[in-house]
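histidine kinase (Micromonospora sicca), 120 aa
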Amino acid sequence: MREAGLPVTLRVDGRPGPMEERVALTVYRIVEEALTNALKHAGTATALVRLTFADGSLAVEVTDTGRGPGPTPDRIGHGLVGMRERVALYGGILRTGPRPGGGFRVYARIPLEPVGVVLA
């Protein structure tokens, strides 16, 4: 994304541990889609990707400093729908929307099950 013109900062809080491949792919796709949307729609902006590991869950937050949603903010694109579906598969939550003062925010929280544990 940096090479495409979107300066991005990554911040990791907490201690990452083992994660199911499918959950890791979901996190990757959320970040990828959020940054792609920022690159397409934010104009001149910067982005912050923040991963927070705490209390048996992973919070993924992608924010940008761009111009925010266009004149039709109620329109939900396919990418946001796909994010919501992916997060729901793991019992997580997704929140998206404009940020106060400009820009856009994508926030997901996904519960992390211990890898290798079989639930009865």
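Helices lie at 21-41, 78-89. The longest strand covers residues 47-54. ok done for today
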